[in-house]
Specification:
The structure holds 2 protein chains of 2 kinds. Chain A is built from 3 helices and 4 strands; from the N terminus they run αααββββ. By secondary structure, chain A is α+β, with helices and mostly antiparallel strands. In chain A, the strands form 2 sheets. Chain A has a two-stranded antiparallel ribbon. The longest helix of chain A has 18 residues. By secondary structure, chain B is an alpha/beta fold. The mean pLDDT of chain B is 94. Classes of the chains: A alpha+beta, B alpha/beta. The structure holds adenosine-5'-triphosphate and magnesium ion (MG).
Amino acid sequence: MNFNTLLKKLMNKSDSKDIAKKRLKFALLTDKLEIKTDTLGNLQKDLVEVISRYFEIDNESIKIDIQRSEECSALIFNTPIISAHRQMGIPAA
Amino acid sequence: MDGKVIVVTSGKGGVGKTTISASLGAALAMQGKRVAVVDMDIGLRNLDVVMGLENRIVFNIVDIIKGRCKIKQAAIKDRRIDNLFLIPASQSDDKDAIKPENMIWLTNRLRKEFDVTLLDCPAGIEQGFKNSIAAADEAVVVCTPEVSAVRDADRIIGLLYAQSITPKLIVNRIVPEMVKSGNMLSHEDVVEVLSIDLIGLIEMDDRVVVSTNTGTPLVLQEESKAGMALKRIALRLDGHPDLPIENPMDKKSFWKKLGSKFNRKN
Ligand SMILES: Nc1ncnc2c1ncn2[C@@H]1O[C@H](COP(=O)(O)OP(=O)(O)OP(=O)(O)O)[C@@H](O)[C@H]1O
Ligand SMILES: [Mg+2]
């Protein structure tokens, strides 16, 4: 560590390149979490197809969304269940 | 054996693609390769002036694609460096005068004539970029040590991977003094963020401007640090992948050390 960096450390001043690096890492992370507009629509169609094998659901009241915060992103999928289908392969009583 | 097609690309504009394409072309030709450098920026050509060949243009790339001339008629031969050719862009045509399938057709023919074809890609991710990467076997991504340039490079790298191309990185316009004072991202920072292999580091060098002013190849200037770095990148691209990458930071401290030794003696 040379004198300048020592002095900066003591004065608790960070280099502008450290700020650049931090911002860059954050930007790249959020860039990658960004999704194309039709991706969510396609995902919803696929999800409905899979879930419909097990449950009867109301296609109209489905909500799918991505929630972003500084820490993480979450995929939120919300659907009321109308009824459960009988398990396939189990004979009806 | 068929030659290879290398695209020089960046995402962000003005980071040095054209300068680097022209210099790598010249250096590879001086190493004995038959080289074509192609200006992919339809409607906004630049490579011709950087290479100093602007007053010899008769036909251009769109003429070739539209069948108005043969490849040989459009390729301008450099008179200073043997085996170096420029295929200029058209200045009057529309951006989408060329489509990816046209480029695949053209480069398949260029592979038969040239050992190396370098594609000087326009900035952005639109038609010119799509045309360039559709035809390329390899890619060199150029960025400067700035947040916006590195971010764009990251996007470009992702798009190249999607085309099954693993690009190599050049960090251009490094100012060692600023890196040392903590006011410029170091190439280590950039490599860490982008996590791809480096193929060369180029310093900020006034000779680049001088060379573009006069249209003389940068690699012919022995005193140019950027020129020398580019010669070594050309070697790495062509058969010497393990040639060590010189670090502009080391060089500085070496001369500084030497300088301070002299000072002490006097
Ligand atoms: N290592 C360097 N040192 C000094 N100047 C440089 C260096 N590299 C490039 N330049 C200068 O930066 C400017 C942009 O360079 P260049 O035209 O090669 O970039 P580009 O990526 O091709 O731009 P565009 O995206 O517009 O096609 C030019 O003025 C050039 O002289
Ligand atoms: Mg350019």
